[in-house]
């Protein structure tokens, strides 16, 4: 065990944590909107619309995240037309490609979580709202969404942790997040165990924080 | 379409073999995972706090750390660890472990952590009366486990195990970083030499989708079989 390496690699990995957290928060932010959007589409009565939303979540949940990143980072750049549009500014940056892939991925899982949360809302609650003469949008934003959020908190907490682990794939498209830096240190020092301990502890610490945050929120928003 | 034709000009046969490799790694990893679950589930359910602690450490660390990091640990550290052990026995040559084994073991350890949680949950949700009844009937320990607890446990565990299988199958794509030629690695090679990454990665996605779809179908049949007589 090389204690010195543990001490010297800690600050390097800690600064990489910032990249990981940025990737995580950006993709969760976009993913939440995507998830909500597709969950609403899934509940649509039109077969075509709900089928489209189902297809989206099926494809993104059925393929590895690594493939999704590679398609977006290596694949989309190949389309000549895209290179001429403003989108190229975004797509040539590995950072944004990773965020796009992560958002689409977590969006698919989030849409499933939210859909099942919406489906478990008792129809009586919505009917009560309707009989009070509330309009559809009001019922949706003030009744359905708050209940769905409470329902889906535990599952969403898991999704955050899965996404945290997913951000490690950003290292495959040259980004230096915790895993990227860890790999760099390992491949220069050939001391995998020490680096694994430091990097792993940082990930576990973030997981621990997320876990407790969700637990706290669950307690706070518990309803009878 | 020429790109995926079989033979010397296309990548069809290479991708087909790579798909078989992915399936082989996934199945091996899943079995290694079961082996780990077989060790750690009893530890989780044990009365002794220290054994619980060991099992909890395993499942928490493995499920809280990115898969890629675990793979790097084994990829860079695996041969070193084996060489260290070999040196104790007086063997000083360089030993390289095969990429297949490194991959299957690292994914297996991850898969095992998830399987352990599934089995623990399944056993815990079996009615307490079942255990007591076995005790009262004086059944031998292994009969009572294999004939009474196991069938009930499997029924409860299969739906969750199918999730573990899906995770394991998708995790195999990460082994491509070690150079094992499975779907992802083969697509990477093909994309590099034809300069057509969009096509090959999309095709890889399609192959994975096909694998998850087919295994879903298979597992559903298994599930029907095991939940009979409920």
What does this structure look like?
The complex is a heterodimer of chains A (224) and B (230). Chain A has one domain (3-220): MetI-like (MetI-like fold). Helices cover 83% and strands 0% of the residues of chain A. Chain A is built from 10 helices and no strands. In chain A, helix 1 (3-42) packs antiparallel against helix 9 and helix 9 (178-189) packs antiparallel against helix 10. Chain A starts with a helix and ends with a helix. The model of chain A has no long low-confidence stretch (mean pLDDT 91). Chain B is mostly helical. Chain B has one domain (10-226): Orthogonal Bundle (MetI-like fold). Helix content of chain B is 79%, strand content 0%. Chain B is built from 8 helices and no strands. The chains are: A mainly alpha (224), B mainly alpha (230). Chains A and B meet through helix 2, helix 3, helix 8, helix 9 and helix 10 of A and helix 2, helix 3, helix 6, helix 7 and helix 8 of B.
Write the layout of secondary structure elements.
The complex is a heterodimer of chains A (224) and B (230).
Chain A: H1 3-42, H2 47-62, H3 65-75, H4 80-84, H5 87-91, H6 94-120, H7 123-131, H8 136-166, H9 178-189, H10 192-220
Chain B: H1 12-45, H2 49-64, H3 67-88, H4 99-124, H5 128-137, H6 141-171, H7 183-194, H8 197-226
Q: Which labels suit this protein?
A:
heterodimer, A: 224 residues, MetI-like fold, 10 helices, flat, B: 230 residues, mainly alpha, 79% helix, globular
Helix-and-strand structural type of chain B: mainly alpha
Number of strands of chain B: 0
Uncertain regions of chain B: pLDDT < 50 for 5+ in a row? none
Radius of gyration of chain A: 21 Å
Instruction: Output the radius of gyration of chain B.
Output: 21 Å
Q: First CA to last CA of chain B: what distance? A: 49 Å
CATH-defined superfamily of chain A: MetI-like
Output the CATH class name of chain A: Mainly Alpha
Largest interface, chains and sizes: A-B, 40 and 39 residues
Overall average residue pLDDT of chain B: 88
H-E string of chain B: HHHHHHHH
Broad shape of chain A: flat
E-strand count of chain A = 0
Helix content of chain B: over 70%
Q: What is the number of domains of chain A?
A: 1
CATH topology of chain B: MetI-like fold
Q: What is the name of the CATH superfamily of chain B?
A: MetI-like
Tally the helices of chain A.
10
């Amino acid at each position: 065990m090389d204690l010195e390496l543990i001490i010297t690699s800690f600050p390097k990995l800690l600064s990489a944590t910032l990249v990981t957290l940025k990737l995580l928060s950006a993709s969760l932010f976009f993913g939440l909107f995507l998830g909500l959007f597709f969950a609403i589409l899934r509940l649509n009565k039109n077969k075509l619309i709900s089928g489209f939303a189902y297809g989206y979540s099926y494809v993104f949940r059925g393929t590895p995240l690594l493939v999704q990143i590679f398609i977006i980072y290596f694949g989309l750049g190949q389309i000549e037309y895209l290179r001429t549009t403003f989108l190229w500014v975004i797509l040539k940056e590995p950072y944004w490609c990773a965020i796009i892939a992560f958002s689409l991925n977590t969006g698919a899982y989030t849409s499933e979580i939210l859909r099942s949360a919406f489906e478990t809302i008792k129809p009586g609650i919505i009917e009560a709202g309707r009989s009070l003469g509330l309009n559809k949008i009001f019922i949706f934003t003030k009744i359905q969404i708050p209940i769905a959020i409470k329902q889906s908190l535990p599952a969403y907490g898991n999704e955050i942790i899965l996404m945290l682990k997913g951000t490690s794939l950003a290292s495959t498209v040259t980004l230096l997040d915790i895993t990227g830096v860890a790999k760099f240190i390992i491949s220069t020092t050939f001391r995998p165990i020490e680096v694994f301990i430091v990097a792993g502890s940082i990930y576990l610490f973030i997981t621990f924080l997320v876990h407790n945050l969700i637990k706290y929120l669950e307690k706070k928003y518990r309803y009878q | 379409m020429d790109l995926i034709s079989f033979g010397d000009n296309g990548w069809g046969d290479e991708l087909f073999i790579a798909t078989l490799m992915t399936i082989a790694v996934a199945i091996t990893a899943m079995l290694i995972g079961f082996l780990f679950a077989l060790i750690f589930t009893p530890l989780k359910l044990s009365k002794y706090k220290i054994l619980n602690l060991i099992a909890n450490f395993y499942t928490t660390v493995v499920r809280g750390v990115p898969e890629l990091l675990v793979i790097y640990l084994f990829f860079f550290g695996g041969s070193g660890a084996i060489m260290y052990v070999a040196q104790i026995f007086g063997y000083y040559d360089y030993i390289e472990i095969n990429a297949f084994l490194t991959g299957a073991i690292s994914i297996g350890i991850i898969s095992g952590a998830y399987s352990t949680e599934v089995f623990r949950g399944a056993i815990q949700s079996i009615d307490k009366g079942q255990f007591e009844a076995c005790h009262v009937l004086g059944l031998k320990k292994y009969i009572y486990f294999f004939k009474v607890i196991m069938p009930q446990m499997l029924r409860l565990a299969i739906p969750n195990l199918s999730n573990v299988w899906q995770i394991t199958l998708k995790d195999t794509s990460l082994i491509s970083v070690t150079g094992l030629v499975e779907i992802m690695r083969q697509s990477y090679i093909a994309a590099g030499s034809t300069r057509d990454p969009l096509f090959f990665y999309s095709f890889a996605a399609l192959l994975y989708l096909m694998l998850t779809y087919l295994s879903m179908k298979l597992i559903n049949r298994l599930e029907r079989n095991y939940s009979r007589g409920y």
